[in-house]
TrEMBL record:
<feature type="transmembrane region" description="Helical">
    <location>
        <begin position="54"/>
        <end position="77"/>
    </location>
</feature>
<dbReference type="Pfam" id="PF02588">
    <property type="entry name" value="YitT_membrane"/>
</dbReference>
<feature type="transmembrane region" description="Helical">
    <location>
        <begin position="12"/>
        <end position="34"/>
    </location>
</feature>
<keyword id="KW-0812">Transmembrane</keyword>
<keyword id="KW-0472">Membrane</keyword>
<keyword id="KW-1133">Transmembrane helix</keyword>
<dbReference type="InterPro" id="IPR051461">
    <property type="entry name" value="UPF0750_membrane"/>
</dbReference>
<feature type="domain" description="DUF2179">
    <location>
        <begin position="225"/>
        <end position="279"/>
    </location>
</feature>
<feature type="transmembrane region" description="Helical">
    <location>
        <begin position="109"/>
        <end position="131"/>
    </location>
</feature>
<dbReference type="InterPro" id="IPR015867">
    <property type="entry name" value="N-reg_PII/ATP_PRibTrfase_C"/>
</dbReference>
<dbReference type="Pfam" id="PF10035">
    <property type="entry name" value="DUF2179"/>
</dbReference>
<dbReference type="GO" id="GO:0005886">
    <property type="term" value="C:plasma membrane"/>
</dbReference>
<dbReference type="InterPro" id="IPR019264">
    <property type="entry name" value="DUF2179"/>
</dbReference>
<protein>
    <submittedName>
        <fullName>Uncharacterized membrane-anchored protein YitT, contains DUF161 and DUF2179 domains</fullName>
    </submittedName>
</protein>
<feature type="transmembrane region" description="Helical">
    <location>
        <begin position="151"/>
        <end position="172"/>
    </location>
</feature>
<keyword id="KW-1003">Cell membrane</keyword>
<dbReference type="InterPro" id="IPR003740">
    <property type="entry name" value="YitT"/>
</dbReference>
Length: 287
């Protein structure tokens, strides 16, 4: 009974999150993108072009494009495009045309393209975070990939978005619109990544050295960081080696490099971004 309650609670939370995300997206379109003729890819971008050419509402046109495609995708690809995708698609259209009729924030196309990208990406990122999508070109790209296996879904998405961006420039007889739309598209994708992955606040070090024990002890003593010794073997030499693995805060990166340089200037060091660390010395593990 309790597990069922938790499941229902989680589902409700997801739908609230998707609702909030589509409202943010609609805010970005109505207050920044649509008034400045910015078409940042996707069916909503194409709908923006048609709105300025024909006067048809952006949300309605997006829905007209997406709903038939949703059923085609369901028939061809199966049920992986589920209820949350349908919910997100319909709600975005309603928010754009009916609920989020917000004022225009700026008529400066550069500001609109920059902040439009940030706001749109924030909204889409929130929708993704709660397990939803807004359908659209995701569905078309997946269908195309089904029949043209040599081209990935990501490549199809990029091609479709590129065609929409070019269409905007041609329709408005101003290729600068295409450039600004591309900027909005790029910033929205970066914002989506930020929402999904978080801000990189830590760094992971993989250190391969003949003096791995000494390096590990120095890290513990000087930086007060935990160290894990991984077993490795050289692919060329076949020699067994210990790999020092350690995660540090960004502020400790230079100190870490200093320690390695002092002990073994010839060490092989790999440095990688870490977006979330749970455990002692970092964030607590939460339910």
């Amino acid at each position: 009974m309790m597990s069922r309650f938790k499941s229902v609670k989680s589902e409700v939370k997801d739908y609230i999150g998707i609702t909030f995300g589509t409202m943010i997206m609609a805010l970005g379109f109505n207050s920044l993108s649509i008034p400045n003729k910015i078409a940042p890819g996707g069916f909503s971008g194409l709908a923006t072009v048609l709105y300025h050419v024909t006067g048809y509402p952006v949300g309605l046109v997006t829905l007209v494009f997406t709903i038939p495609l949703f059923f085609i995708a369901f028939r061809i690809l199966g049920g992986r495009f589920g209820v949350k995708t349908f919910f997100g698609t319909v709600l975005f259209s309603i928010n754009v045309d009916v609920i989020m009729r917000t004022p225009v924030f700026t008529n400066d196309i550069f500001l609109a393209s920059v902040f439009g990208g940030v706001v749109l990406g924030l909204g889409i990122g929130v929708v993704f975070k709660f397990g939803g999508t807004t359908g659209g070109t995701d569905l078309l790209a997946s269908i195309m990939h089904k029949y043209f296996r040599g081209i990935s879904v990501g490549t199809w998405l990029m091609l479709i978005d590129f065609m929409v961006v070019i269409t905007a420039g041609v329709a408005f007889k101003n290729m600068e619109i295409s450039l600004y739309s591309t900027l909005t598209l790029y910033l929205s994708m970066k914002m989506i990544d930020l929402i999904q992955e978080g801000i990189s606040y830590a760094k992971a070090f993989y250190i391969i050295s003949r003096n791995s024990d000494e390096i590990g002890k120095a890290i513990i003593a000087e930086l007060d960081r935990g160290v894990t010794m991984l077993s490795g073997r050289g692919g060329y030499t076949g020699e067994d080696k210990e790999v020092v693995f350690c995660i540090v805060h960004r502020a400790q990166v230079f100190q870490m490099k200093d320690i390695v340089k002092k002990i073994d200037p010839n060490a092989f060091v790999i440095l990688a971004d870490v977006y979330e660390v749970l455990g002692e010395g970092f964030k607590k593990i939460e339910n």
